[in-house]
Write a structure and sequence with these properties.
The chain is α/β, with parallel strands linked by helices. The chain is built from six helices and five strands; from the N terminus they run βββαααβαβαα. This is 3'-5' exoribonuclease.
Length: 172
């Protein structure tokens, strides 16, 4: 299985009514050198200025971003090129990140290469530590900047630390 660490930035709380502004993905391997970055033009007139501000982009900037269909098709191509079998979606907030990526794949390409499942990095760490109050974020090396590739890379680094130092059994 190929684990793909994903992070999204949006202009609101749900897909369709609001838009995924950008996302980043990292193939989880020892080098973390295979990445994808997409910037997507909004799909809705609605947006939350506070949510958009987290991404560091203005509404005017996002209106010039790429066609969402083309970005999702490029991401599907990237997944096919970098994954020998079905990719596994993992993120630090899969409830949020997954719903946007899944919606965009189905809406713009008709299918989701990740299937119907996703994994949550935070829950994995809590289980490993047997403590629902533990947080994995100290395991990141790359600074959390809200640039989705940086954030996905930092989360992938945390997953690799769980493997190397905490004994996580995972085949990469």
């Amino acid at each position: 299985m190929a684990y793909i660490m994903v992070d999204v930035e949006t202009d609101g709380p749900i897909p369709g009514d609001f838009s995924m502004i950008s996302f980043g993905a990292v193939l989880v391997n020892e080098w973390l050198d295979t990445t994808f970055y997409g910037r997507l033009r909004p799909v809705s007139e609605k947006y939350n200025p506070e949510a958009l501000a987290v991404s560091g982009h203005t509404r005017e900037e996002t209106l010039g971003f790429d066609d969402p269909r083309a970005v999702m098709e490029s991401f599907a191509d990237w997944l096919r090129a970098n994954c020998k079998d079905r990719p596994v979606f993992i993120s630090d907030n899969n409830g949020f990140d997954w719903m946007f990526v899944c919606w965009y794949f189905h809406h713009f390409t008709g299918s989701n290469p990740f299937g119907h499942s996703s994994q949550n990095l935070g829950s994995l760490y809590k289980g490993m530590e047997k403590d629902m109050f533990k947080n994995f974020k100290h395991l990141r090396q790359t600074k959390h900047t809200h640039h989705p590739v940086d954030d996905a890379k930092g989360n992938a680094e945390a997953l690799l630390t769980m493997k190397r130092e905490l004994g996580l059994k995972i085949k990469l």
